[in-house]
TrEMBL record:
Transmembrane segments: none annotated. This is ABC transporter ATP-binding protein. The keyword Transmembrane helix does not apply. The lineage of its organism: Bacteria, Pseudomonadati, Pseudomonadota, Alphaproteobacteria, Hyphomicrobiales. Keywords: ATP-binding, Cell membrane, Membrane, Nucleotide-binding, Translocase, Transport. Residues 4-234 form the ABC transporter domain. It comes from Roseibium sediminicola.
Length: 354
């Protein structure tokens, strides 16, 4: 069990800064996601926590002890890679036992421990099989077995499901989360897949170009994106952005877009300039009465819902509506926005207005 605190952590490779000064806290027992597009610095952050990369600056505390310059072997952290390397000449049992045997644990204890782990992972029946002929899922379970067998303080996982096909990946994600819930060990998990992060994580750090854009629960990040980058990266289809020039007064609960007063959550600070009105597709309703109008460009049937693409005076947007509601391409419809769910952004900084 471990609480991990990251303070002003930074990493440079030559004159390139891969991770800008970052701070966040991972609570004991949390399933914690590092999420962002390729090259944003997730893996580098994870490797610094694990002790595989030396920070340029900043501190890493594990259970209150600063470990940023300690070797990986002193940190008691298990690392699970995407390209999990199993020892091909050993069977499943030997692969899982290996970390304990190399620690010098007595044989009977090793056997007990391996049996316990195999039971947790549901691989008791394949313990004596060679790893060569195993399915992708079983290989992953063996790799996990080897990681959990020595009861580390925390797990670091770098896209562990990345090599699996979509359907199986979802199944393994559920299995991994269930395993975490049973064991309760602090887990830091790197992924570029927003759905995986939302489904599995207790908390998420969203990174972009080495910078933390937002840190919070999946719900916080979905409902209250701190930046346009986060709003766009999370959710599918992603949040709609309507650009307009305008003014909001402190305490105001509406904005004027294209001659229409549209309600928004109360703003604490006044703002005038180029703004972006952000709304998720499921928070738009198509009505006969709405005065803000759009032309239906397309409708995509998805079973219980349909995604309707509309052209408005401020740009295109997508609405997710019940598939039973009739829409015709080419017709003009009124749009109703659920004001409580709107996020307004400063177009220049990309940050949400407060
Ligand atoms: P991916 O999912 O593609 O691995 P990532 O978010 O994990 O992306 P990192 O692997 O942390 O990103 O890399 C961040 C940036 O740092 C990238 O631009 C990468 O090229 C660079 N980088 C990583 N390791 C090194 C290194 N050893 N030397 C130089 N540059 C590096």
């Amino acid at each position: 069990m471990a609480e991990i605190v990251i303070r002003n952590l930074r990493k440079e490779f030559g004159d390139f800064t891969a991770v800008q000064s970052s701070s966040f806290k991972i609570e004991d027992g949390e399933f914690f996601m590092l999420l962002g597009p390729s090259g944003c610095g997730k893996t580098t952050t994870l490797r610094m926590i694990a002790g595989l990369e030396l920070p340029t600056d900043g501190e890493i505390y594990i259970d209150g002890e600063e470990v940023g310059r300690q070797p990986a072997s002193k940190r008691d952290i298990a690392f699970v890679f995407q390209m999990f390397a199993l020892y091909p000449h050993m069977n499943v049992r030997k692969n899982i036992s290996y970390p304990l045997v190399s620690q010098g644990m007595p044989k009977h204890q090793v056997q007990e421990k391996v049996a316990e782990v195999a039971q947790i992972l549901g691989i008791t029946k394949i313990l004596d099989r060679p790893v060569g002929g195993l399915s992708g899922g079983d290989r992953q379970r063996v790799a996990l077995g080897r990681a959990i067998v020595r009861d580390p303080k925390a797990f670091m996982m770098d896209e562990p499901l990345g090599a699996l096909d979509a359907e199986f990946r979802e199944h393994m994600a559920e299995e991994l989360r269930a395993l975490h819930d049973r064991m309760g060990a602090t887990t830091v998990y790197v992924t570029h897949d927003q759905l995986e992060a939302m489904q599995m994580g207790d908390k998420i750090v969203v990174m972009n170009h080495g910078v933390i854009e937002q840190f919070g629960t999946p719900q916080d990040i979905y409902d209250k994106p701190a930046t346009m980058f986060v709003a766009d990266f999370i959710g599918s289809p992603s949040m709609n952005f309507l650009r307009f020039h305008g003014q909001v007064l402190a305490g105001s609960t509406s904005v004027s877009i294209h001659h229409d007063e549209i309600s928004v959550p109360r703003l604490q600070e006044p703002f005038e300039g180029d703004m972006v009105f952000g709304i998720r597709p499921e928070h738009i309703a198509l009505t006969d009465t709405g005065t803000y109008r759009g032309e239906v460009l397309a409708a995509e049937y998805l079973g219980t819902t349909q995604i309707v693409t509309l052209k408005t005076a401020n740009g295109e947007l997508k609405a997710r509506i019940p598939s039973g509601q009739p829409v015709r391409v080419g017709e003009y419809v009124g749009l109703d926005f659920n004001g409580a769910t709107v996020t307004l952004f400063d177009n220049q900084s990309g940050r949400a207005l407060k």
